[in-house]
Amino acid sequence: MSGTAFAKGQAVSPFEYVWGQAYHVLPETHNSESGYFSLCEGLNGKVYVGTAKYGVNSYLVEFDPKTEKQRIVIDTHKVCGLTAKGYAAQSKIHTRNSVGLSGKIYVGSMQGYADTSGYPGGYVMTYDPRTGEAVNLGIPQPGYGIIDVVADEGRGIIYVIPVDAMKPWTCYDMKTKLFREMGPLLTGRAHTLIDWRGYANAITRDYRLAQYNPDTGKVVVRDILVDGKRVTDLGISPEWAMAADGRTAYLIQAADPTLYEIDLLGEGKVVKAMSHGRLIEGKNPRSRTLRVGPDGRLYAVVRIKNETGFGEDKLYHLVRFDPKTKKMDDMGVLAVKNPGFFSHSADEVGRHTAISSTSPAYVGYHTLPDGTLTPGNSSDCMAMIVTRDGVIYVTILYPFTLLKIEGLSFPRTSSVLEPITIQD
What we know:
The protein is an all-beta fold. It is built from 2 helices and 32 strands. The chain has a domain at 38-182: Neuraminidase (6 Propeller).
């Protein structure tokens, strides 16, 4: 269909749409219309989003799906007793939020700039929705920000990954309240997965599988083999997720949507993995999201070049993989059903450093020939979750958007789980 002309409002899209309700993330909590991996569902059914306010501060924002209201639950500088600005500020909550069995939410902060002059290091923090209390647990690695925090409350361990593979894998003992290095160095934006045995798993800087046994305190590192060949490059930001069986991890790369299946419990000197092929075909792919839904299927948002002839720019597709049937589905292109969610005023747009007053309000979006507003070339989809009720939330940049997607086919489960009591 390349080269075909379409009249706005009259064209028929050659692809399906996945419609979502868009919410502008609380404007006072960011100054570049951006946030990162920080997104989770609490046990209370509310959604938590981390923000970036460069040179100033960072926040954890609570979104209530029932009331559609937002509020700040972690003010990083306030919780940590800080006043520094500029390079020394805690400018981002970039971590993939971890939710403990108690219902506590675990996050970490990091710097906003490559120049870290005067930066003290990132803080590990918790927020308890039951009490409303936010707590600062300290700095794991002085001078270095935090890219990942995952809590194993049952064993009293919090796993912490410093950003950009500059410092080793680290853990925090909830009883002694001390941090210690576990080693080894991990890939730049690594993420800890805890399997059903309680072992912590992460990808190393040289793309091997590191497994920490909390009972012995030892780390074992093994090569990952796909079709008998060692994996030697997973890019700077591989994304992976744990299947419901607690032993199978699925992984994709940021610039390659090939889906890998890894048996974390496999024995031997190497770890065997298999490829299921690409989640979707297309030029210039990009994805930072991979999640397992309540139906056991995997979901991801993948950006590819728009070569349909229907509009230009790039398109964000919601794709799904069924581990049972090995079937991949392109569910459609993300679309906003309430395009007026963001102010078009010059004052509103000009406040943000990444958007000048002469730029369009929706620099991260574009309008297709049928009038549909969809994320585009200047945007990025930084995070995604699938809730227990089968609602998908996606964060989109420029403006910083929380997109709520409902109506997909999932088995229904309880929307609220009761937290358990963890002894400190």
